[in-house]
Amino acid sequence: MGWGESWGAVTDWVSTTWNNASVQKVMQGAGTYCFNTVEYIFKQVGVLPATLKSMAFDPPTREVVKHIVYLAGDYALYALIPYVSDMVEEAARSSFSDDNPALLSVDTALTVGIGALSLATMAFKTRQTLKMGGRAAVIAMEGAKAFNNAITSSDKEESKDKEIIPRAEKSGKHPKKDKKKTALCQIEGCTTGKFVKSSARSQLGFWSIEGILWMLGKLPYTERVVFVFYLLHRGRYVTNMILPELCPAHQHAYLREHPEIPAAFGLTHAGLSALANYLIESNTGIPSKYYGAGIDQIMLMIQMSLAAHMKNDLPKPVAASSRLPVDPLMIYLNSLYWTVDTFGVGLKARLPEMLKGKSIVPWGLLATVGNKAWDNSASRLLRSILLPELLQDPDKLASDPVIGSHVVEVRDVVADTINTVDKVRHKYVVRAAQQTPAASAKALQALFGAPPEATRVFLKLLGNTGFMDSLSQLRRRLQEQTLGVKTEVEVDEKDTTPDLRVGKAPHESPKIKRTHPSEKGISSITVSEVVVPAKRTGRGLTLFDDSDTTQAVCKVIRSRSGNSHGFFADSSPKQISSNEVITRSKDPKGFQSSGFNQ
User: Fold this and answer.
1) Alpha carbon distance, N-terminus to C-terminus of the chain
2) Helix (H, G, I), strand (E, B), or coil: what is residue 535?
């Protein structure tokens, strides 16, 4: 085929496409899109009373609102301090005198002061940005859950009973009366592996779009284009957050089938942000460039609540979209997902082979170098300047009013998961499966539907001693951390009980240092030499926490060898070494002993 014939084929295809996409059809599609978008905007106005009611009376939603208030305080500082700094810098620069040589030293001092002020402001903004970013991420996750649960029970049942259109029904294979009223992902058989894969894909797409829009915003004459893209991007994010029952793959199909929904959410969010910026700027005179990003983040939470309350008025999910993507960001996501899936097919075949031989990456050396760089004095100084306190101290992180309640929970979940994996790898069945990972993966796929590639990789990792040792070290580090604010009280007490050894006089007990972590339900007592009671009951020793009326009784008998043996109320005799912590939970049966290092 020559050049002329090829060009003729292309022109014929373009002509046919143009004739099929007539002006009437284009106008009709655009009109339908605009009408549906406006309709969804007005539906949000209708659910505004229910949204305000849940914020006032629903406890989980009220907790989210309280966290949003903390976030608003962070953004207020983030706006005020740079604003004051800019005003001071502007006033200092206006006092420069280029004509008077006598004032040269004054101008030099002002220049140095302005530079120091700029560096201090930059460090503050970095610390505050990291702090606000962590809090905003946590609020977004807990907010989506609270807003979805704030719907009334009747609305929940109605939402659960929505009719779902499986892929088979879209092709007309089943009659309409056979439609099942259950979750779409259950109908389509979405496995955990598919959910994890599509979640990774979705996160990659979200953050890559964030980066692209950020770079586009740096170019001249792109403000309006970037604004429209951000509008659609924010609307898509809100829609995904209110559809947790769908896997990310079906969320993507839903957004492609109903592009008017993210457009409506994005327009409403942009309107709320613009209104808040106008009210603040008109009443304070502070330009919105100092707090616009904070208002945008806070209004995103409000928009998420509005969207969750109108969830039952949204169209039902679909297994696959029949509409062509017209949004440039949606076209980009489709291309990105196709690339990731294509790369994943090759990775599935190569990853087991890569895990067989010795790794070419010196992981041990990299870890050693990283730890030395992290513990370097210059690195510690830089972290103390740029990182907020909650990222420097685990106790500060656990006591944070927004993040703290989730830190202990996540710590426990990670530690329990690692502990479960460590127990599983010692079972004889798992050891046998590690000898033939390929056959074991096929068997698990036939029995439970587990993806064979993931199963083979998991079995390989279970047999990797270095990897499992690293996991065990991580679990021990997590379990050793007592997250929370500690207060210490020293108590002087005299031990008047005679020593059981022959010829020994009564001795004076050492000081007791009681450590009360704020972690819920845990209290501990640290003793410097041997277990000494906080209260005497005859020969017995009563260890107690002043904040709890429940008492843990431990009788101690000192043998001739000088060791101490504790007889706990609910267990057999247990030897207690010196320098030890007796830890108990508020459950009377929850006594526990663990070593203590001075």
Assistant:
1) 85
2) strand
* Distant-in-sequence contacts of 325-331, Cβ < 8 A, 24+ apart: 325/256, 325/259, 326/259, 327/232, 327/259, 328/229, 329/209, 329/229, 329/232, 329/233, 329/236, 330/255, 330/256, 330/259
State how far the Cα of 571 lies from the Cα of 582, in Å rounded to an integer: 14
The two three-digit tokens of residue 176, written as one number: 């309409």
Alpha helices by DSSP H, 357-376:
363-375
Report helix, strand and coil shares of the chain as percent, to nearest 5: 65, 10, 25
Give just the sign of the alpha carbon dihedral 225, 230, 235, 240. Answer: positive
- Tell me how crowded residue 173 is: count the other CB atoms within 10 A of its CB: 10
| Torsional sign, CA 172, 178, 183, 187 | negative
217 against 277, higher pLDDT? 277
Cα(482)–Cα(408) distance, rounded to whole angstroms? 9
**Alpha-carbon distance 430 to 44, whole Å?**
53
The answer to whether residues 179 and 164 touch, using CB atoms and an 8 Å cutoff, is: yes
Alpha-carbon torsion 529, 530, 533, 538, what sign?
negative
pLDDT higher than threshold 60 for residue 492: no
Length in residues, the chain: 598
| Residue whose entry in the numeric block shows the structure tokens 């999910």 | 317
Residues ≥6 apart with Cβ < 8 Å to 189:
none
Q: Report the SS3 class of residue 519.
A: coil
Enter the tokens of residue 511.
């000081």
Domain boundaries, the chain: 353-480, 487-595
Helix (H) or strand (E) holding 410: helix 404-424
Quick one: tokens of 412? 């426990």
pLDDT at position 82 is 92
Pairing of strands 522-527, 535-537: unpaired
142-153: pLDDT as tens digits = 888 888 777 644
Distance CA 56, CA 65 (A): 9
What is the enclosing helix (H) or strand (E) of 480? helix 465-480
Q: How many helices (H) and strands (E) does the chain have?
A: 22, 10
pLDDT for res 195:
67
CA 121 from chain centre, in angstroms, equals 28
Rounded-to-integer distance, Cα 443 and Cα 456, Å: 11
- What does 58-119 look like in DSSP terms, one character per residue? -HHHHHHHHHHHHHHHHHHHHHHHHHHHHHHHHHHHHT--SS-GGGHHHHHHHHHHHHHHHH
Structure tokens at 32: 């339908």
Higher pLDDT, 439 or 211: 211
Cα–Cα–Cα angle for 186, 188, 192, rounded to 5 degrees: 65
Weakest mean pLDDT among 170-174, 411-415, 458-462: 170-174
The 574-576 sheet, strands edge to edge: 535-537, 540-544, 551-558, 564-568, 574-576
Other CB atoms closer than 10 Å to residue 578's CB: what's the count? Answer: 13
- Amino acid 66 reads K
Q: Confirm if 490 and 513 have CB atoms less than 8 A apart.
A: yes
The residue among 316, 199, 188, 204 whose CA lies nearest residue 258 is: 316
Tokens of 301: 């939470």
pLDDT attached to residue 400: 82
Q: Tally the C-alpha atoms within 13 A of residue 98's C-alpha that lie toward its C-beta.
A: 2
